[in-house]
Amino acid sequence: MKEGRGNFGSKLGIILATAGSAVGLGNVWRFPYMAGENGGAAFIIIYFGCILLLGIPGMVSEFVIGRHGQSNAYSAYGKMGRKQWRFVGILGIVTSTIILGFYAVVAGWCLQYLYASIAGQLNGDATYVQKYFQSFSSDPLKPCLWAIAFVLITHLVIVRGVQHGIERASMVLMPLLLLLLLVIVVSSCLLPGAVGGIRFMLWPDFSKVGSSVLLEALGQAFFSLSLGTACLCTYASYFSRRTNLLRSATQIALLDTIIAILAGLMIFPAAFSVGVSPDSGPSLIFITLPNVFQQAFAAMPAAGYVIGILFYALLVFAALTSTISMHEIGTAFFHEKLHLSRQKAAWILTTVCSVIAVFCSLSVGAVAEIRLFGMSLMDFCDFLTAQVMLPAGAFLTSLLVGWFASRKTVHDEFTNDGTVSHSLFGLWLFCVRYIVPLSILLIFLHQFGVI
Questions:
Q1: 3-state DSSP call for residue 376?
Q2: Does residue 88 surpass a pLDDT of 50?
Q3: Distances from the Cα of 251 to the Cα of 12, 421, 447, angstroms
Q4: Is 413 exposed, middle or buried (0-12, 13-18, 19+ CB in 10 A)?
Q5: Rounded CA gap, 348 and 175, in Å?
Q6: Are 68 and 414 spatial neighbours (Cβ–Cβ below 8 Å)?
Q7: Nearest 5 degrees, angle CA 163-CA 339-CA 9?
Q8: CB count, 10 Å around CB of 139?
């Protein structure tokens, strides 16, 4: 461990911090919607298989690079392979910076809705709630300020370092997130007619399973676990030599999957209880659900008020655990490569991401003319990172670990220098060499309509 570098202080801190990087807004609405539309439990079974064959091997690959390098992503990739491989680390740093920029916009919306829920501003019929969202999102100032506020909250965690900032925040945020999620799940499942929503989510319908469902599950597993952002690599650089990489990856993937399933059991029973067909995207979070909570708990207005507050608090916590990890990637790079203090390095990231957030916010609101290739700047950033940069980063990582890195180095990291069982090393390496790159290639071709 380099002198002056931070490190996680406990096994639980490692699990919660790294799981927090994977758990985000996508778990709350994207996974439940995809499961409900693609065979319910059948999709979940396929998704879990993808986690085992793609997600966990990919996570361990980034863990191997990060812990071996004991440095920022740029340097870690260079240490694992030749210096030319450092561009993969740069790709991850740029990708995470762009994602943090536009992610902060939606996270800022969550902050605004948390405030509005507390202030009782979301009480009204469906038309009122829809107009409220349209009015807020098109305002030239408010969404920008909320987005910047979220980046600044993230900044306050990052400047405190690994143990006192990232780990301590994760030890608070992740248990709170789970507690809030369980409270809302129980409340939602006890509503009249909630059984229909539970069945919609968990009943296996294999008639909907086809090649497209398999690719959707592969894509969800890939994006849900933050593969390709250099986040896992950066966090692993703070792991101790005693950390069991395979066990940690398995625990993180399991926790991420459990949260995604619970999110479905939170949303669908409430929606079915009032006869609302769930939709995906911002409309579900900011238009449909506020009205759903009001209708579902119409007989108990106070309960509906509290559930609404808890739901948006949940979204804020989920978003924050992700933005912390994305901020740390670039902060670690500037801190170590430019020899800046952690505070100055963090301010560079905060400033850049705030600028991106402002322009992305304006592009979907007050200044719709901010467009690239026919898309709003925010949609373009989403497309560029999700469909090009993330798959490229994860694909190149699998090639480096599977084919170009020293087999002895990879084996030593996987087994903690021979102190951890190596019985699964051969299977893991086979997945990294063949299953992971082939799966990513299929996802990439599917996204561009080639297959």
A1: strand
A2: yes
A3: 10, 17, 29
A4: buried
A5: 30
A6: no
A7: 15
A8: 15
Please report which confidence band the pLDDT of residue 285 belongs to, taking 50, 70 and 90 as the band edges. confident
Distance of CA 238 to the CA centre of its chain: 20
DSSP 8-state class, residue 51 = I
Q: Copy the structure tokens of residue 19.
A: 């799981």
Mean predicted confidence (pLDDT) in 216-228: 82
| Whole-angstrom distance, CA of residue 391 vs CA of residue 95 | 11
The backbone region for 351, taken as left when phi is positive above 0, alpha when psi lies in -120 to 50, beta otherwise, is alpha
**Residue 303 — very low, low, confident or very high, per pLDDT cuts 50/70/90?**
confident
Instruction: With residue 285 as reference, give the H or E element that holds it.
Output: none
pTM value is 0.92
Q: Which two tokens stand for residue 377?
A: 């700047």
* Cβ density class 88-119: b for 16+ within 10 Å, e for less: bbebbbbbbbbbbbbbbbbbbbbbbbbebbee
What pLDDT is attached to residue 291?
Answer: 81
**Distance between CA atoms of residues 352 and 359, nearest Å:** 11
Question: What is the arithmetic mean of pLDDT over 114-136?
Answer: 88
Cα angle vertex 149, ends 147, 151, to 5°?
A: 75
Say if residue 1's pLDDT is above 50. no
Q: How far apart are CA 65 and CA 57, in angstroms?
A: 13
Asked if residues 30 and 220 have their Cβ atoms less than 8 Å apart, the reply is yes
Q: 5 φ, ψ to 5°?
A: -80, 145
